[in-house]
Task: inverse folding
């Protein structure tokens, strides 16, 4: 089955849109009301570049929520249960955001640019509306905006070599989640050692949307000796590495998850004494224990992914949800992630993934997968 999706003015194009078209993009998805490349015609080659070389991704749809003003730090801290008092300028933090009932509503990377200026590099949801409403309701002196910022990611074991060509050898000693404001041939950007893969890499936060094609060309030229090529955030690698996908893992069919269920309990600091959205609810979860837990899954054979979560069952009893699965060539098996009842044993027998074509035998496996 094939079909087309019309591109209208309600779907924004990224600063790199023209460059991705010229580079042969073959499909787009929608993320944060923007078009984001889905693939460039050869998914296997894109995966191989990510695992063994270097890939470049247009991730401009990874939007920034900017908080500025005297109470910017106060609002930022109120939005997350993770304590930020030791976060320095130039340091990123992975931070869960919850609603008042303790359910996760995003899992951005926080960038502290100044004592009165922060970015939340968000997954697919309207967090700028949430943050602005809370700041206004609390009466705090803080401005919430979406700035002209468009990340371009270079990921893979050779990404550091490409970054060194562009920015100098100093990048090799940058710590994970560290970032700095800089320029490249007059293009203003923030260089961060981060990215949605476990293969290592950098994100170049372009701060002038008119220079997207220029930056794309510079990265492609610098990466040519290392075999760089375009691609997109890779679902198979993220499953292998156990990375969380907000949209796939905790926002489906009306269901939700809290940080403890997603394995982020260490980022919920209930002892620091600070107030934050959802504190009372998360205190109850911490006292009672989470109802579910996130697990890795191995499915028999090579079933076709349905593109949406499906039940995990034992007999007629549903014991969880399979959030996403795919065949891993590297591991030569079908792997996935899901949320299951907290008391379901790791060695539980009789588990099946319920697909329209039939039940597929399944077992629980540790994350990340490695050579499981």
Result:
């Amino acid at each position: 089955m094939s079909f087309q999706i019309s591109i209208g003015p309600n779907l924004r194009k990224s600063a790199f849109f023209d460059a991705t078209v010229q580079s042969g993009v073959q499909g787009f998805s929608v993320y944060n009301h923007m078009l984001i490349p889905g693939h460039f015609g050869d998914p296997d080659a894109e995966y191989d570049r990510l695992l063994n070389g270097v890939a470049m991704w247009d991730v401009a749809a990874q939007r920034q929520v900017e908080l500025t003003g005297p109470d910017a730090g106060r609002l930022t801290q109120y939005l997350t249960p993770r304590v930020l008092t030791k976060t320095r300028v130039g340091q990123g933090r992975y931070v869960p955001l919850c609603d008042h009932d303790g359910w996760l509503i995003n899992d951005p990377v926080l960038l502290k640019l100044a004592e009165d200026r922060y970015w939340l590099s968000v997954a697919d949801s309207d967090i700028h509306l949430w943050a602005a409403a809370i700041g206004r309701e609390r009466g705090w002196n803080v401005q919430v905006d979406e700035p002209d910022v468009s990340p371009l990611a270079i990921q893979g074991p050779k990404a550091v070599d490409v970054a060194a060509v562009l920015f100098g050898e100093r990048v090799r000693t940058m710590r994970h989640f560290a970032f700095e404001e800089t320029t490249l041939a007059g293009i203003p950007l923030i260089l961060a050692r981060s990215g949605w893969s476990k293969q290592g890499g950098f994100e170049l936060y372009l701060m002038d949307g008119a220079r997207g094609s220029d930056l794309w060309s510079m990265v492609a030229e610098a990466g040519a000796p290392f075999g760089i090529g375009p691609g997109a955030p890779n679902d198979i690698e993220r499953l292998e590495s156990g990375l969380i996908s907000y949209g796939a893992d905790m926002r489906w069919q009306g269901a939700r998850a809290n940080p403890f269920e997603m394995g982020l309990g260490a980022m919920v600091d209930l002892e620091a004494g600070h107030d934050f959205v959802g504190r009372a609810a998360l205190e109850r979860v911490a006292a009672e224990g989470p109802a579910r837990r996130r697990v890795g899954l191995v499915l028999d054979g090579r079933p076709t992914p349905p593109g949406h979560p499906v039940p995990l069952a034992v007999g007629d009893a549903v014991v969880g949800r399979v959030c996403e699965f795919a065949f891993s060539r590297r591991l030569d098996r079908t792997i996935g992630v899901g949320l299951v009842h907290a008391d379901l044993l790791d060695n539980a027998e009789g588990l099946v993934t319920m697909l329209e074509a039939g039940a597929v035998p399944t077992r629980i496996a540790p994350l990340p997968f490695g050579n499981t």
